Amino acid sequence: MSSRLDISKYLEDVSGRYARGYVEAVDAMFVAEAMGNTAALFQARRDWRDIVTETMGIAEVLGAMTMLKEASDVVRSEPELFHLMAHAEHATMLRFVNTPTQTLLPSLSFEEALDNLTLRVPVTFEDAAQRTKQNIGKVYQEGKGLAFARAAEAEVTQRVQKALIDAHRLGLSEFDAGRRIMTDANAVRKLGGAWSESYSKLVFRNNTNHAAVAGRFRQARDPDVKAATPAFRFTATGDADTRPNHQAADGLVMAVDDPDWRKIAPILGHNCRCEVDPMGLPLLRRKGLFKDGKVVKKQIPNGARPDKGFIHSGRPDLAF
């Protein structure tokens, strides 16, 4: 199974164990907030931050791995590109491992996913994988993804306040509302509606897609990888649900380090499914998009932009 399919399964796993952890954590925060239970809220927020860090870390590793494997395919088809790399003196090491048939996803923790990044990568890019493993590990160990967790915590607080206001209208005291939430699953659904689950799945999708794209950009910055795949192509899903401003960017090709990616890199809105796909040097040359040692500069098409009201974080690998 390809690493690209691993990413797709992971991002679409909105009812599996990864997304379920989001739902459970949001429910716990909702209950603790409504009850005014400070100790429980502290624990719920800690659990929430742990699951956000874990899932985003895995998604970023998967993004980096797809970048490495696709860059490896380029070098395999054009072996002379290997001599452009920083460790070109080891050209005799140009060999590739067989991709394991099992998916990355089952039972993987963040730490296991990091190990897989270096264990499963073709030997050509071992150094690049090791450098990126260290970079990704540092990002999440330092808690730089906590801004994503805190944004959801604030949303939960607002939703609890709304639920309690609604409960007052039904004649319940704030304590009674909280007690009913704690002891009656139907009360959770009545006061919170289907919000907890739908919001959790939305945040899961947004966070993991953001992190997967960040993994691609972070890996693409490595000099070995950039030598083989110096550009990204913006790819919109292109189905009936694709938003016009997302579709407008479809096909845009820019160097992986082009500053304009800060304006248009996915994600461009809630539930955005857009991606950036690496373009190898041979393909860029055939299309006339690589001249004088550089990717030909392209302008962002008119109408291509993030959704109105959506806080676009720029190039995701630089956001945290």
Short description:
The chain is mostly helical. The chain contains 13 helices and five strands.
Describe this structure in words.
By secondary structure, the protein is mainly alpha-helical. It folds into two domains: 3-229, no CATH class; 230-314, no CATH class. It is built from 13 helices and five strands.
What is the strand and helix layout of this fold?
Elements: H1 3-11, H2 17-35, H3 38-77, H4 110-119, H5 126-141, H6 146-169, H7 174-183, H8 185-192, H9 195-220, H10 223-228, E1 231-235, H11 244-247, E2 253-255, H12 261-264, E3 275-279, H13 281-286, E4 290-291, E5 294-295
Antiparallel strand pairs: 1-2, 1-3, 4-5
Helix pairs in contact: 1-3, 2-3, 2-6, 2-7, 2-9, 3-4, 3-5, 3-6, 3-9, 4-5, 7-8
Rg computed from alpha carbons, rounded to a whole number of angstroms: 22 Å
Content-based structural category: mainly alpha
| H/E topology pattern | HHHHHHHHHHEHEHEHEE
> What portion of residues belong to β-strands?
5-15%
Which regions are unreliable across 5 or more consecutive residues at pLDDT < 50? 87-106
Q: Work out the count of structural domains.
A: 2
Q: Span from first to last CA?
A: 30 Å
Mean pLDDT: 79
Shape: globular
Helix content: 55-70%
Q: What is the total tally of β strands?
A: 5
Characterize the quaternary organization of these chains.
single chain
Strand order of the largest sheet: 2-1-3
The largest sheet is: 3 strands, antiparallel
Tally of contiguous helical segments: 13
